Each structure stands twice: as C-alpha cells, then as structure tokens.
Amino acid sequence: MQRETYAERTAYPKVFEFVSWGRFEATADLPDPSVVANRNSLAQMFRMKTPRRVPQYVAHHFEIDLALRFWDHVEIYDAGNKWVVITSPYGPVDYEVCEGFVLIEPVYSLTAKSYLGTVPKRRRNGNRDRSPTRKPKASA
Fold this sequence. Notes:
Low-confidence stretches: 129-140
Structural class: alpha+beta
Strand content: 5-15%
Number of domains: 1
Shape: globular
Number of helices: 5
Mean pLDDT: 82
Distance between the termini: 58 Å
Strand order of the largest sheet: 1-2-4-3
C-alpha cells in the first residue's frame, strides 16, 4: 500500500510533487496544516507550475550556489512571466537583507524561515527587466 505524500496533502500536488518536500511521507501530524495552507496560497497567488527546466540565469540572478549550506531547500517554480525562487533555511540566516528575498509564511516547516524572490523571464531577444526583489550589491 502506497503512503500519502506531502504534495498530495496540498490542493496542487502536481506543482509540489517534484520538490523534496513534496515527496516526504505524510503522517497524522505532518506536514503541518498551516504549511500546506501557505503552499496552497503561493501556488494560487503566483499560478505556479512545475518548470520543465530552469535556465541558468535564474540561479545566477541570486548568485545561488546549491553546494553551499547557506542555500537550504531551494525550490524554483514557473510563474508565467517570472520565476519564483523559494528557500527555507534553518538557523539565523536573513535573506531579506543580503540577497533580495522577502520573508514569507513558512512553506517547509514551522521551524525554518521561508523566503521568496522572483526573477523576470527573459524575452526572446535576451533582454529582461530588473527583478523588483533584487537588491543592488553593496560596493566594496
């Protein structure tokens, strides 16, 4: 008998089934219902879809190096004319200040902060607008 996954507890299982959070086995207590509700709200608000592939410029926009522990539980979604990037680190990391993300309600667990950033999709000619959530780098 196959067990229910976290993704299947959401209203958008096809959106969340590809990320590690979505593949966790659900229990009576997990995932927390508020985390599921927060994911449902984001999926609806951004009309998120599972990306077929994520262009490299999305990771480069926020200088994401997935090998670093600084970036924890990174998820990237297709949201029509932009990419939605979510990260949920444990600990005292503050992405709002240093990386241009905004703090959102928890979408990984109640014990991890969750942050969201957006990256505009490139147009066919390669140009794109500057992301409204990207903060300029501090000069040395």
